[in-house]
C-alpha cells in the first residue's frame, strides 16, 4: 500500500486449479473480472474483520502466539520393503527371452 492508502499490487490465486500459485487472477484484471471473482465481497469482509471489536472476555493474542491450530503430525514413514534372504547381495537375474524361431 502506498502512503496515500492506494493499493499498488494485489494477488488472488485459484489454489485448487493452480496450487503452485503461478497465475495471479488479479494481474491486469478489469473491474468486471474482479466482480466475477467476488473481490468486492472479499474486500468488504476483510474490512469488517479488521475493524471488528474483540469480545472483552477473550484474552488478547500476543504476536508470538500462533493464530491457528497446530499442524497435524506428519504421516508415519513406511519402512522399506525387506528382500528375502535368497536375494541378499546378489543382483536380480536378467529376464528370460522366449526361444527364437
Description:
The chain is mainly α and 101 residues long. Helix content is 20%, strand content 0%. It has two helices and no strands. The chain has helices spanning 31-37, 39-51. The protein is elongated. The model has no long low-confidence stretch (mean pLDDT 74).
Task: Record the SSE blueprint.
Layout: H1 31-37, H2 39-51
Q: What series of H and E elements makes up the topology? A: HH
Shape: elongated
Q: What fraction strand? A: under 5%
Number of helices: 2
Unreliable spans are: none
Main β-sheet description:
none
- Structural class call reads mainly alpha
Concise synopsis of the structure shown:
The chain has 101 residues and is mostly helical. It has helices at residues 31-37, 39-51.
List keywords for this structure.
single chain, 101 residues, mainly alpha, 20% helix, elongated
